[in-house]
Design a protein that fits this description.
This protein is α+β, with helices and mostly antiparallel strands. It is 27% helix and 36% strand.
């Protein structure tokens, strides 16, 4: 079965990082997207999050990104190439 994979990177504001991360992961879960990887690091602008997601089609992944934009505390979301090599919040 073919899957589409996306890598997203975003920062979470430092006010309530765990609650915001839980809300972001709830978006992924509700859409039925497979979480293939999660990495967090402390950054100068908050908690930096790297998500590696997969779904049978691209549409749920695009919808996921749109919904993540609506989560309070999530800053700009960047889509990374399959092998992310950049770091630092933008």
């Amino acid at each position: 079965m073919n899957t589409t994979q996306k890598n997203y990177r975003f920062c979470i504001e430092p006010d309530a990082p765990i609650a915001t991360l839980e809300a972001a992961l709830a978006v992924v879960r509700r859409l039925g997207i497979e979480l293939r990887g999660l990495r967090t690091t402390a950054g100068a602008h908050g908690l930096e999050v790297h998500l590696r997601l997969a779904a049978p089609e691209e549409d749920p992944l695009v919808l996921c990104r749109m919904r993540l934009h609506n989560v309070i505390g999530v800053q700009a979301i960047r889509e990374l190439p399959p092998s992310p090599s950049t770091s630092g919040c933008i």
